[in-house]
Amino acid sequence: MSNLDENILKQNPYFLFYEMMVYALKTDDVVDGMNKSLYLLKLCIKCGDIVLHKKENGMYIHSISQTGMQHQIPPISCIVNKTAPLIESKDTFYLELGLSDNFKNMMFVHMNTDDSEYILSINNVDYSKITSLDFFNKLQETMLIILKRAEMYEKNTKAINTDLLTGLDNRNSYETRLQNLDKEKSDLVYGIFDLFRLKYINDNYTHVIGDKYICEAANILNKYWPKEKIEIVDNSFKKSTETGHCIYRVGGDEFVLLTSKEKADLVSIKSKLACSEIEMIDLGLEDKPLIGLNYGITSHKPKDSIKDTYKRADQLMSEDKRRMYLKYNLERRRS
Q: Which residues partner with 241 through β-bridges?
């Protein structure tokens, strides 16, 4: 697809849609497939910018940079705008998207999948290149195929990487992140969190109460470090993703934090606050069993071994747990 003859696209716009469908149904990188489809559309109808808007709680915009590249398909930046657009009028739409007045001949194609509403906006459309209104019907039908497959892929990916009990990222997601640590430019802070006396709660109050303990603690940790991904595109169109924060549930009572946005000192302070909140969790029991959170926080540099970083954090967490058992005069085997 990177060597498409632009003359073919000029002569037969339906070739574009065939290629779009074939690529979208074969690729595992759906975002890349959509971006390349939009780029092919740009070549076909000779417009300025093409933007795909996904209207949900936020609005996902896939926009095409005007690079002058005619035979190569450049990576396309993905921008997240927290405010969904109002589309009662074009003027309102321009305002919400921050578009300038020189955007003329803007065309909107509305699409609804099972879960979401999408708007494909095309500005500076050269209608002389369009020989049939059926072109736009084909556009709508083809983009719907791509978008529905994208939604299915997103759901499957989420199921693979999500812990069913807490909704946090799971061990599979964590292991995938570790494999890509060498691609991240920022230094990371690595934190291990362990729920205090989860086994005691499970053994004495049933696993239903234990699961409630896990979920409440997960919500508190996620409140302090909500998952955040940052798309970075440099001048050479190289795209990378850094994770600002992400909490992973990697075991029954164990959570891991990886963040590139905070220093270890700040993470330690927030960990103390999270620990105080977890100690106050109401499990709905008449007696109030002792619960809490143990943690170990350390820094991970790109040159570090992740195994060594884990060992440092795990040792700090174990020391914190030992101090808590001594503080409350508890025997670890019985409690």
A: 231
Separation of alpha carbons 246 and 224, rounded Å:
10
Q: Record the tokens describing residue 33, joined without a space.
A: 């497939």
CB 221 within 8 A of CB 193: yes
Cβ partners under 8 Å of residue 171, min gap 6: 248, 249, 250, 251
Which residues of the chain does CATH 3.30.450 include?
Answer: 6-161
State pLDDT tens for residues 231-250: 555 544 445 566 689 999 99
Token pair for residue 66? 């005007």
The fold adopted by the segment(s) 171-327 is Alpha-Beta Plaits (3.30.70)
**Size of the chain in residues:** 335
Half-sphere exposure of 244 (CA within 13 A, CB side): 11
Mapped onto helix, strand or coil, the DSSP state of residue 83 is coil
Alpha-carbon distance of 177 to 186, in angstroms, equals: 14
Residue stretches of the chain with pLDDT short of 70? 1-37, 39-40, 43-49, 51, 53-108, 123-133, 136, 182-186, 230-243, 333-335
Cα 334 off chain centre by: 41
